[in-house]
Specification:
This protein is of the alpha/beta class and 345 residues long. It has 2 domains: 179 residues, Ribonuclease Z/Hydroxyacylglutathione hydrolase-like (Metallo-beta-lactamase, Chain A, 4-Layer Sandwich); 128 residues, Metallo-hydrolase/oxidoreductase (Rossmann fold). The chain contains 7 helices and 19 strands. The strands form 3 sheets. Strands 7-8-9-10-11-18-19 form a 7-stranded mixed β-sheet, with helices on one face. A 6-stranded mixed β-sheet has the order 1-2-3-4-5-6, with helices on one face. A 6-stranded parallel β-sheet has the order 14-13-15-12-16-17.
Length: 345
């Protein structure tokens, strides 16, 4: 049904690609992160909540069609539908059906509900294509309520010490999750320009997020005292942050699970908060599909595929793709001084 090509995952019968990494005629997109939604294709199809995010990232004149969760379109005789992935706003698994055979391409996903994005829903299929960003047994997340309780206490401790609290998080996805789940902790958020741009688009689309204040060269230094500040990873360690002194830096990432990563990122605190499934979540998702054939993409793909084969009794294999990890500092944040129309980040 699907082929793995040098342009991406291809469906010959429907003549479309899923998350292609090179320009194609028709691209079916799982979500708006830059490693899955790339500029240059002629037509795009995505879940309806992703439409404004794709236009933000790829240009306002993008030729894109949005489809609600669970509704289908047909390309030739191939049925295509989107189903919640729980990764971020608008993220979706792509279900492809033809002549009684069903494949599901997961994109990126997490199984714990973050309170904002549409919760993950397993989709029964014969073949499942899964990510494995955190596909090692060492990656096991605490409940979100526990993580956010820790962040809240850290903020309160910083305020008692007269410090600003700077949280590092990817500008699309993680930053909105922080704002939504910390909205009762503080009535005021100051943010980097990349996050302010994204935040405006998300709020304009109707999502219940708190207002933010964009940090500019004109923002007075006294505004940063005891403030909660959110910035993308690309801003950490830059001259942009010097104005916040005294401050404490907290990095929000699944990579904080590994001892030493907090020190390497020069962070004062590390919060294990990921928008990807952990080891148990990956196993849970695979099992829930009922699939007997599993292809494993980006992350610890060889390890996870081998485990599924040897311990799960599945026909599993590693597939090389150009998908990456948006939890790393990609340097591809939207332009904070100009419009992002046409930005291929």
């Amino acid at each position: 049904m699907l082929q793995f090509t040098d342009k991406g995952i291809y469906c010959p019968a429907g003549d479309f690609y899923i998350d292609p990494w090179l320009p194609v005629e028709r691209a079916v997109i799982t979500h708006a992160h830059s490693d899955h939604a790339r500029w240059g294709s002629r037509k795009y199809l995505c879940q309806e909540y992703s439409v404004p995010l794709l236009k933000l990232r790829l240009g306002a004149d993008l030729q894109v069609q949005g489809l609600p969760y669970g509704e289908s379109v047909y390309f030739n005789s191939v049925q295509v539908s989107f189903h919640p992935a729980g990764h971020m706003i608008g993220s979706a698994q792509v279900r492809i059906a033809l002549a009684g055979e069903v494949w599901v391409v997961s994109g990126d996903y997490k199984v714990e509900h973050d309170g904002l994005s549409t919760p993950f829903e397993p989709v029964t299929c014969h073949t499942f294509i899964t990510e494995s960003t955190f596909g090692l047994p060492i990656y096991r997340w605490q409940p979100q309520t526990t993580v956010f309780a820790g962040i809240q206490q850290w903020i309160q401790d910083n305020q008692a010490a007269g410090k600003a609290s700077v949280l590092s998080a990817y500008s699309l996805g993680k930053a909105q999750r922080l704002l939504y789940n910390l909205r009762h902790v503080t009535g005021r958020f100051l943010v980097h320009g990349a996050i302010a741009i994204t935040e405006q688009v998300v709020r304009d689309a109707g999502w219940p997020l708190p207002a933010v204040e964009r940090i500019t060269p004109q923002t007075p230094k006294e505004a940063f005292a005891n403030a909660v500040i959110i910035c993308p990873p690309s801003a950490v360690g830059s001259s942009w942050m010097r104005r916040f002194t005294p401050y404490s830096l907290g990095v929000c990432s699944g990579w904080m699970q590994v001892r030493g990563n907090m020190r390497r990122r020069n962070a004062d605190a590390g919060f294990v908060l990921s928008d990807h499934a952990d080891w148990e979540g990956l196993l849970q998702a695979v099992k829930a599909t009922g699939a007997q054939r599993v292809y494993v993409t980006h992350g610890f793909s060889s390890v996870f595929a081998r485990y599924l084969t040897e311990q799960g009794g599945l026909d599993a294999a590693e597939i090389k793709t150009a998908f990456g990890d948006e939890e790393e500092d990609t340097g591809n944040e939207p332009d904070t001084n100009h419009t992002v129309a046409g930005n291929g980040a």
